[in-house]
Design brief:
Radius of gyration: 18 Å
Distance between the termini: 31 Å
Strand content: 15-25%
Number of helices: 10
Helix content: 25-40%
Structural class: alpha/beta
Mean pLDDT: 96
CATH architecture of the largest domain: 3-Layer(aba) Sandwich
Number of strands: 9
CATH topology of the largest domain: D-Maltodextrin-Binding Protein, domain 2
Largest sheet: 9 strands, mixed
CATH class of the largest domain: Alpha Beta
Oligomer: single chain
Order of helices and strands: EHEHEHEHEHHEHEHEEHH
Low-confidence stretches: none
Length: 234
């Protein structure tokens, strides 16, 4: 039975780390996973890197289907995630209860860690759009510090190491870092939710195994684990 290879957004890492062993034990499959920012993973799939299952944003899955890299009809929405704000563990927690409170907190912050809007995680581009909507994009530019992306480059590590005062990233990515306190998701009015979807590679070595894995990710057991790691489920 060939090994199943997953290429996935980092936002799903903590969930998959918890779920894959259960799937392996129940199915007899072995699974290897590689993680990175969703745009980078989508490019790797588009460039033809070997995989059985890709997990990226829903629109990226649709694009990869159009490119012939993922099987038509194989998209399955497995999780939803909101961006959140974190501070170092024990630090005072700023007010982000309303869009105006969030705006004031951003202007008062000395520095902000976030995903790089160019080639980084999906949250980076969304956050720049929020700053533009709030009219503070220019004021924020000198404060921004970009995470390297991937499991070792989470924004929470910048906060934990005192390299930035606050950090904003997808909720599960912030929760993966023990040295930060998650203040909460961005407030309604500017909150955006990213949908993460799985698709089967058109070059999958084990398409049946890939289908079984994706089906497992939509079971009640898997959904409970995904929610426990900071995401919502469809």
């Amino acid at each position: 039975m060939p090994e199943l290879r997953i290429l996935s957004t980092t936002a799903m890492k903590t969930s998959l780390d918890a779920l894959v062993p259960t799937f392996e034990q129940a199915s007899g499959h072995t699974v290897s996973s590689q993680f990175g920012p969703s745009p980078r993973i989508a490019k790797r799939v588009a460039d033809g890197e070997a995989n059985d299952v890709a997990i990226v944003t829903g629109p990226a899955v649709d694009d990869l289907i159009k490119q012939g890299r993922l099987v038509p009809g194989s998209r399955s929405d497995v999780a939803q995630s909101a961006m959140a704000l974190a501070v170092k563990k024990g630090a005072p927690q700023p007010d982000i209860s309303t869009p105006e409170a969030f705006r004031k907190t951003m202007l008062a912050a000395r520095s902000l860690g976030m995903s790089n809007p160019v080639g980084g995680g999906v949250s980076g581009g969304i956050l720049i759009g929020i700053f533009e909507e709030l009219g503070i994009a220019e004021q924020m530019k000198p404060k921004l510090v970009f995470g390297a992306g991937g499991p070792a480059g989470l924004v929470g590590f910048l906060v934990e190491r005192d390299e930035v005062e606050i950090g904003i990233q997808q909720m599960p990515e912030l929760k993966a870092v023990s040295g930060v306190d998650v203040v909460g998701p961005l407030p309604f009015g500017i909150r955006t939710v990213s949908v993460f979807s799985a698709g089967i590679s058109t070059a999958a070595k084990d398409a049946a195994g890939a289908r079984a894995l994706i089906a497992f990710l939509t079971t009640p057991e898997a959904k409970a684990a995904i929610r426990a790691h900071g995401m919502e489920t469809p």
